[in-house]
Amino acid sequence: MPEIGEVARIVNYLQKHLVGKTLTVVKAQHDDIVFGKVGCSAEAFEKALTGKKVLGAGQQGKYFWMEMSSPPHPLMHFGMTGWMNIRDEETAYYKPSQSKKSDEWPPKFWKFALETAEEPKSEAAFVDKRRLARIRLIDYPAEDIRKVSPLVENGPDPIIDKDILTEEWLGKKLASKRVPIKALLLDQANISGIGNWVGDEVLYNAHVHPEQYSNTLSPAQVKQLHKSIQYVCGFAVHSLADSSKFPEDWLFKHRWGKGKKDSATKLPNGAKFVFLTVGGRTSCVVPSVQKKTGPVAKDVEDEADEDDGSDRKEETQPAKRKRASKVNDRKQTVTQEAEPVENGVANGEEADENPSKPASKKRKSDVKAETNCMDAGSKKPERKAKPRENRVKGEAKYETTGRRKSTRVSGKGV
């Protein structure tokens, strides 16, 4: 969830509470995902930061870091639910926590906790409930952090890289790809920092439909899209993601009631907004404003069909049957291509000669034939039946208890 504005908010708190101070206490709990997935560990993190002075804090899109008095430097990404808590400070964005403030420290789901030596002492903790965050160490000079992986693989930041993310640069980027424009904006390899809600806000402000292919935008649309990126991202960063300062006509102010009873479905100006899925993400769209002016992705489920009929002709019955036939053909093709994987090919096993017959569902005759073809030496020795004289002799007496019938055998073995 934290995007460019929310990360700017936490960088501001780091500058306020940690920069210029020495970290006298550094505690970390190892997490095979949060630390381990990026080749770091709790022990290495503690060793790298303990006794070091924090000289600065920086950001590129959704990534942020602390510049230490000497390398390595911690580089962090919040993922979906990560955040940085400052003791005795409300750092929450959008709206303060509704729950009663806990005095527990370090807070629940903490990954690392810091304490400064200088008075007044400051304490900070990185928390993540869903473990989708990433914490790593960059063993390069601070000025080279953005020149090495993973930041070097990411696109320019809309705020700090305005000299790169120009209208001309954006036009070339859009023209070089044929993907839904919303998907392009969310890809951090193209532009850093734009997430789901920022992407929707940008496209609404630019009057561009999220499904439209990126290489079909007109020069005028590219120009407006560039202005909208600068406007929305700039406002989010400069306001430190304080939603109380967001314009009242932003989608952000009204979009969060999806699926809830009596939730808003219109903006203050009366324009109706709907939700559809683009690139696997839920998008908030205002059909009356965001018109489709070019080809769109055909595999996107449009939940706004009923509301966006102005730019779609009603499909005839023959056309519907033809389209359904094509869909069935595609499904059949995909199924046929996927069958070898189900038969074990993807796991390095040899495929059955007849891939249409899953190995787990072989006929009994096939199993019997395979058994008969086994080498004689590999067969288990047959078990001989016990002599009758070794069996228990006696009469079987039956006892009935309720509905269940039990057998008691009396007698002695020979």
From TrEMBL:
Name the keywords, alphabetized. DNA damage, DNA repair, DNA-binding, Glycosidase, Hydrolase, Lyase, Multifunctional enzyme
A UniProt-annotated Pfam family: Fapy_DNA_glyco
Q: Where is this region: Disordered?
A: 290-414
Chain intervals with Acidic residues compositional bias: 300-309
Q: Has keyword Amino-acid biosynthesis?
A: no
Alphabetical list of SUPFAM superfamilies matching this protein: N-terminal domain of MutM-like DNA repair proteins (SSF81624), S13-like H2TH domain (SSF46946)
Q: What segments bear the compositional bias annotation Basic and acidic residues?
A: 387-402
What family is reported? Belongs to the FPG family.
Matching PANTHER family: FORMAMIDOPYRIMIDINE-DNA GLYCOSYLASE (PTHR22993:SF9)
Q: What is this protein called?
A: Formamidopyrimidine-DNA glycosylase catalytic domain-containing protein
